[in-house]
Amino acid sequence: MNDSTDEQKPKSWWNRLSSGLKKSSASIGGAITGLVTKRRLDAAMLDEIEEALIRADLGIATAARISDVIGQGRYTQNPDADTLKGIIADEVEKALIPVAVPLKIDGAKPFVILVAGVNGSGKTTTIGKLASKFAQDGRKVMLAAGDTFRAAAIEQLKIWGDRVGAKVIAREQGADAAGIAFDAVTAAKADGADVLLIDTAGRLQNRTELMTELEKIIRVMKKVDVSAPHAVLLVLDATVGQNAISQVEAFSKTAGVTGLVMTKLDGTARGGILVAIAEKFEMPVHFIGVGEGVDDLQPFTARDFARAMAGLEK
Fold it and tell me: Pairing with 205, which of 24, 37, 46, 199 sits 20 to 30 Å away (CA)?
């Protein structure tokens, strides 16, 4: 009886995070274990460790730094796999602490959040999960269905609106996204909403005309509130690996990205891309996602991520 009750208990965030990062931690941990059980730690092994970290997409700078730390005097006496994983976790945490910044909803009412990203990154689902969190915090939430390319995205946002009790500003498929943003900011002001989340169509970072439309959305909403948007969140799909770096570059230039949300960390062995992005851009990472459930998107914490990435216990 007790066993079945335990099975029905929802997983803690740590358990969801560590199981979500299993592919990444297995990739790193497997390489480390395989190396240290074969021979003594030497220069060649350090090179192989560095290569394993680069393959996990941690980035060249981070991988080189971790390799250097492992190679320092006190680690030359045949360290075991757990010792090396501990070093990796410590160095990853150091790289991530500066970017583990909570999203603060203050200073404006409505606080307008524009959500951008490429096709399939999980924008609409992320908006729904964020709306749920904000509503649970007692905030009045409004949603805007600015992804007018996809009828499914409009319907999906309406479902989330019903679920969390949020009004949804939407038009028919193919409507002008900038016009919807204008109407949404106007309506959010009139209704006294605390937070307005605006969905946008997925757009490839190399499609100039689509990126120009994103600029237009921002320009038009400023006619209602010159300070809007108050946050521009870029949703990144962790499974795309290095391509995420060019996405951050392009969207930052076009939309003035203020923070990142990384999704689908449970679908890749290369979750280290978050570390590479942190080192390169020093941009706040507000949330990470490790699954489809509403509780599988949580505020980003450097220590938990680093230890789960290295395959260690909390």
Answer: 24
In angstroms, the Cα distances linking 1 to 7, 9, 11 are 10, 13, 18
Closest CA to 57 of 238, 235, 241: 241
Helix (H) or strand (E) run with residue 43 in it: helix 43-55
Query: What pLDDT shows up at residue 5?
Result: 39
For the structural domain made of 10-99, what CATH number should be given? 1.20.120.140
How many C-beta atoms lie closer than 10 Å to residue 77's C-beta?
A: 9
At the top level of CATH, which class does the domain 111-299 belong to? alpha beta
Contact assessment for residue 23 and residue 271, using Cβ atoms and an 8 Å cutoff: yes
Quick one: DSSP state of residue 100?
B
Strand 285-289 to 297-299 pairing: antiparallel
- Tens of pLDDT, residues 63-91: 999 999 988 865 556 778 888 999 999 99
* Residue 20, token pair as written in the block: 């979500």
Q: How far is residue 184's CA from residue 224's CA, in Å, rounded to a whole number?
A: 10
> Burial level of 262, CB count in 10 A (0-12/13-18/19+)?
buried
